[in-house]
Write a structure and sequence with these properties.
Rossmann fold; 269 residues; 2 domains; alpha/beta; 9 strands; two-stranded antiparallel ribbon; single chain
């Protein structure tokens, strides 16, 4: 069953819908939206089980597609460009394929239409996601008094300070004053295999080639989510797709190189 999503809206002009990734929220995209709102009416929903949107018992891409279709209807969006990062990029690809009549353009940030668990050696970031969600589940937030304590707990296994800070943005206090995760940790942990596996080449097999709308992939050159070896498979699905590389940027390219990221977005819309 679809849910009504919390969202942020700003700007004026053609509609741009931004879809965040795993552990993300609309808040993470405020600075990017500010740089684009002179050009577009921008909607940034919190996807289910994230931010201030409802927690549900399931978290599949079909669930999120249904939520997004409801979102389009609720806000009378007749046409939009979709910009999706990571999990949000896979959602954007699936939604656009299912509802091409609603799409004026598709921009996919640092994710490929592939199964990230298909190789003999599991994709290293999938293993990292498993560890992150286990840490989140293990942490007894009721016994924690400060964000510094949370950071200390996470730092034992997560050495990347910026990643820890990003994760801690998902902490807030409940009505009783105790810390709790904004994201639905148990459901996302259960859904992780689906999140990293689905919307892959097999799913697109009977839908390709897709030529209904312009498609752009933006990748960080320090990230391994879209490798050079992935480009031919992307071109099989989207023969006219363009790929823009952002140097000195990893998977969170919009946060690491915001000016270059905005420049890339504006160059294709």
């Amino acid at each position: 069953m679809s849910v009504t999503l919390n969202f942020r809206k700003s700007g004026s002009g053609p509609v741009l819908v931004i879809l965040h990734g795993l552990y993300g929220a609309s808040d993470n995209w405020i600075s990017i939206a500010r740089k684009l709102e002179d050009h577009f009416t921008i909607f940034i929903p919190d996807l289910r089980n994230h931010g201030a949107s409802p927690h549900t018992t399931t978290h599949t891409y079909q669930d999120m597609v249904d939520d997004l279709y409801r979102f389009f209807n609720e806000h009378h969006i007749e046409k939009a460009t979709l910009l999706g990062h990571s999990m949000g990029g896979k959602l954007a690809m699936m939604f656009a394929a299912e509802y091409p009549e609603l799409i004026t353009g598709l921009i996919v940030a640092d994710i490929a239409p592939k199964n990230y668990n298909s190789e003999n050696k599991p994709f290293k970031t999938v293993l990292q996601h498993e560890m992150i969600l286990e840490l989140m589940e293990e942490l007894n937030l009721v016994a924690v008094n400060s964000r510094k304590e949370i950071d200390f707990f996470l730092a034992d296994k997560l050495k990347d300070i910026s990643l820890r800070q990003f994760l801690i943005k998902n902490i807030h206090r409940d009505k009783e004053g105790y810390f709790e995760w904004k994201i639905n940790v148990p459901v996302l942990k259960y859904a992780l295999n689906s999140i990293t596996t689905d919307v892959n080449a097999e799913w697109f097999a009977e839908r390709k080639p897709i030529l209904n709308y312009p498609v752009t992939f933006i990748r960080g050159l320090n990230s391994d989510y879209i490798s050079d070896q992935d480009i031919p498979a992307i071109k099989e699905i989207y023969p006219e797709a363009s790929v823009i590389d952002i140097p000195d940027a990893g998977h969170w390219l919009h946060a690491e190189q915001p000016e270059k990221f905005v420049e890339a977005v504006l160059s294709v819309i």
